[in-house]
Queue: 3 jobs
Job 1
Amino acid sequence: MRAADRLKARKVLIVGDSELESGFAVLKNMADGSQEQIALDSVVSVLASR
């Protein structure tokens, strides 16, 4: 998260072992700290729409 903050990233997609196991990634909004779960099979379409 520090690297994303230094790069002034607006959003971060978190995909770790538990996310791969569950089939959901976490999309974090760096501006307000909010997070939402996104199905791995829809990550591209969700990110393209934002």
Note: The mean pLDDT is 95.
Job 2
Amino acid sequence: MESLDNIKAMLVFSQVVRYGSFAEAGRNLGLTRAVVSYHIKRLEKKVKTQLLVRNTRNISLTPNGERFHRHCDKIALEAQAATEELRDCKSRSLGSIHLTCPIFLGQANIVPVISEFRREFPDVDITLCLNDDVDFSDGKTDIAIQSRTLNSAEFTSQKLNIEERVIVASPELIEHLGDAIKLSELPKMNCILCGNASKEIILYDKTDRIKMHLQGSLQTNDTFSQLSLVLAGAGVAIIPKWAVQSHIQAGRLEVILPEYDIEPTSIYAVCAQHPQSPFVPKLVEYIRGKLMRLNS
């Protein structure tokens, strides 16, 4: 506490020198003349030397007072600068970020990331647009989470994660198809397709790389609808593992051909070269951390 009292006395001393008057310094600081006088006397006692020469007309510095004042003045200026900087930070936003991502991925994983990010950076404005078809032509997008890269004068792509996928179907459909489903039967099944996903997939076993062409009479534009359809037994589907893990554990879905691995999908953050906020890279790192944990 003594050190804080010393700093306060040094600030009072700086103001007395600035205004050349105990009374004027007191008015500026919201202190009485007597309190100002107390701080100066206390300070002179602490440093064991006279700092000011007082008479009825004015106040002047002693040689030691001049040397001491230079340091006190620096402390006063730094305190004022710190206060003003904090006031400015509270009165202005640290930029805005326009983020767009697929609907299902956004609802399940990106919304929690934004909540976490906002707790650390509450002054950054964020607009989240959940859309499976990203439109970059409006010039508003700072970050787009998608499975395609885009590198140009306006945008750059950063890989966030590898998304593992599995082939799933409802237990009822598997029972109807027959429990021992063979790889050769996959192209003949009704596959529920999603978005612009290719009908060709690559599968791997321990020795071979196998390319297969899928067919299907159902197509949707988002993973949530695809998942709802496969849960209803409308067909088989290739879906990110994180999206169906809970349904598999609960017995609502089963993995078909678990002995084969499907070529994973890469997830990218396509970012504007000149974003509206300097915190875009920080938000991308938050999202990367969340997506990487999905495969753990």
Note: The chain has three domains: 2-91, 96-162+266-294, 165-263.
Job 3
Amino acid sequence: MDKYLLAAAVLFLALAGCAVVDQNDQITALEKYDESKAEIAKYVKKQEENFNRLKDDIKNGLLQKGSSEGEIVFNYGDPVFCKDAALQGAVKKSCLYRYPTKYFDTNKVYLNFDENDKLYSWEFVTASKIDRE
């Protein structure tokens, strides 16, 4: 009978230890998730600041035709996406900038680049109208 009691006690302690290890793994995963959320929030805030600066520079006449794509990315961050526009005259690539968490009914800026990756033109699109340069 003592053998069974001892075996049950050993089994119980072994399983309890596994539960503690499992909880530590879960806590570690949650901590990493929390860190990741903070990094994402920081990235989103930076992208929003970049887009606001781009909008302001367009409205104040500070965005210059002929700027290189590298200068644009340096000043305003990476675009949401770019697509080839080979059939649109001098424009070879069009890049979209917008708020990172808003997909519809939001301001958008399309920056159009020529074959030398220089800013050729832009289009500022609001939910209600389109302003073109």
Note: The mean pLDDT is 83.
